[in-house]
């Protein structure tokens, strides 16, 4: 079996460690644990890293298309690796959940997330696994754009870091047990 784990974010130092890049941050934790290094793949417009875990190939993907075009990288990579949407796990931010909370879902709508909208549009399917990491709602009248493109404040930094680590734990648990529902029961909330 092969699993493709995609973390959503925007490329470039300007966006590093912003709330919208929490998917990239989760993949960085997983890559560090597996001693993997990301390499830029210009053909697929993504930074990728791959290895075998318990005899199963795991492909980590950070699309560098910018968030709103994430599907441009995801669909060709799935096809190239002979995978279907069921082999895909996407990690991304959710502003409707408290900072650091997790929600694993088997499928669903985009819920207003432009990266997920792009993936759904390119795949023609909502049938892929998701790991949503809460980033909370904007505070003090801040716009949604400024909120998601900003970094976590001191008050939320520890919860955000815990969410990133727990999301990496959830993905690794799923890789080991192959049961997304069971993993969700363990990590949701």
Automatic annotation (TrEMBL):
<protein>
    <recommendedName>
        <fullName>Peptidyl-tRNA hydrolase</fullName>
        <ecNumber>3.1.1.29</ecNumber>
    </recommendedName>
</protein>
<feature type="binding site">
    <location>
        <position position="66"/>
    </location>
    <ligand>
        <name>tRNA</name>
    </ligand>
</feature>
<feature type="binding site">
    <location>
        <position position="114"/>
    </location>
    <ligand>
        <name>tRNA</name>
    </ligand>
</feature>
<feature type="site" description="Discriminates between blocked and unblocked aminoacyl-tRNA">
    <location>
        <position position="10"/>
    </location>
</feature>
<dbReference type="InterPro" id="IPR001328">
    <property type="entry name" value="Pept_tRNA_hydro"/>
</dbReference>
<feature type="active site" description="Proton acceptor">
    <location>
        <position position="20"/>
    </location>
</feature>
<comment type="function">
    <text>Catalyzes the release of premature peptidyl moieties from peptidyl-tRNA molecules trapped in stalled 50S ribosomal subunits, and thus maintains levels of free tRNAs and 50S ribosomes.</text>
</comment>
<dbReference type="GO" id="GO:0072344">
    <property type="term" value="P:rescue of stalled ribosome"/>
</dbReference>
<comment type="similarity">
    <text>Belongs to the PTH family.</text>
</comment>
<keyword id="KW-0694">RNA-binding</keyword>
<dbReference type="InterPro" id="IPR036416">
    <property type="entry name" value="Pept_tRNA_hydro_sf"/>
</dbReference>
<dbReference type="GO" id="GO:0006515">
    <property type="term" value="P:protein quality control for misfolded or incompletely synthesized proteins"/>
</dbReference>
<keyword id="KW-0963">Cytoplasm</keyword>
<comment type="subunit">
    <text>Monomer.</text>
</comment>
<feature type="site" description="Stabilizes the basic form of H active site to accept a proton">
    <location>
        <position position="93"/>
    </location>
</feature>
<dbReference type="InterPro" id="IPR018171">
    <property type="entry name" value="Pept_tRNA_hydro_CS"/>
</dbReference>
<dbReference type="GO" id="GO:0004045">
    <property type="term" value="F:peptidyl-tRNA hydrolase activity"/>
</dbReference>
<dbReference type="Pfam" id="PF01195">
    <property type="entry name" value="Pept_tRNA_hydro"/>
</dbReference>
<feature type="binding site">
    <location>
        <position position="68"/>
    </location>
    <ligand>
        <name>tRNA</name>
    </ligand>
</feature>
<feature type="binding site">
    <location>
        <position position="15"/>
    </location>
    <ligand>
        <name>tRNA</name>
    </ligand>
</feature>
<dbReference type="GO" id="GO:0005737">
    <property type="term" value="C:cytoplasm"/>
</dbReference>
<keyword id="KW-0820">tRNA-binding</keyword>
<keyword id="KW-0378">Hydrolase</keyword>
<comment type="function">
    <text>Hydrolyzes ribosome-free peptidyl-tRNAs (with 1 or more amino acids incorporated), which drop off the ribosome during protein synthesis, or as a result of ribosome stalling.</text>
</comment>
<dbReference type="GO" id="GO:0000049">
    <property type="term" value="F:tRNA binding"/>
</dbReference>
């Amino acid at each position: 079996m092969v699993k493709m784990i995609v973390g959503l974010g925007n490329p470039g130092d300007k966006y590093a460690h912003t709330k919208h890049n929490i998917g990239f941050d989760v993949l960085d934790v997983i890559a560090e644990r597996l001693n993997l290094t990301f390499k830029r793949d210009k053909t697929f417009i993504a930074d990728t890293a791959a290895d075998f875990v318990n005899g199963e190939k795991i492909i980590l993907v950070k699309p560098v298309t910018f968030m709103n075009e994430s599907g441009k990288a995801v669909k060709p990579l799935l096809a190239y690796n002979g995978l279907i949407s069921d082999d895909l796990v996407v990690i991304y931010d959710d502003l409707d959940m408290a900072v650091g909370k997790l929600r694993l879902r088997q499928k669903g709508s985009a819920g207003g997330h432009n990266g997920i909208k792009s993936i759904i549009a390119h795949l023609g399917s909502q049938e892929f696994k998701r790991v949503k990491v809460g980033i909370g709602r904007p505070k003090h009248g801040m716009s949604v754009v400024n909120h998601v493109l900003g970094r976590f404040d001191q008050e939320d930094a520890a919860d955000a870091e815990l969410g990133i680590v727990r999301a990496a734990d959830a993905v690794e648990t799923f890789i080991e047990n192959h049961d997304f529902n069971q993993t969700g029961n363990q990590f949701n909330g």
